[in-house]
Amino acid sequence: MDSFITIRIKRKRAKRFQKFSKTYFNSHSETMAVMLDFFLYNEISPKENLGPTGRRIEHTFKKRINAVIAIMRDIKIMESCYY
Question: Where are the chain's structural domains?
């Protein structure tokens, strides 16, 4: 059996980790191992910005759609003026 060591973590973060761990894994050790493996396997740093979030992408997409709609309305208005 592996031996254990103590790691000092702020109480608020420890509680958050425990809640996450209970939700997805059987033990805190397993949770930590999977999290570390995830970062190593994907060759990313937890400090990296992974790009735009879904909300930002959705917001940008909506703005572009609204711009296209405005252009289409302008074209329709211009067409109706000529007929």
Answer: 1-47, 51-83
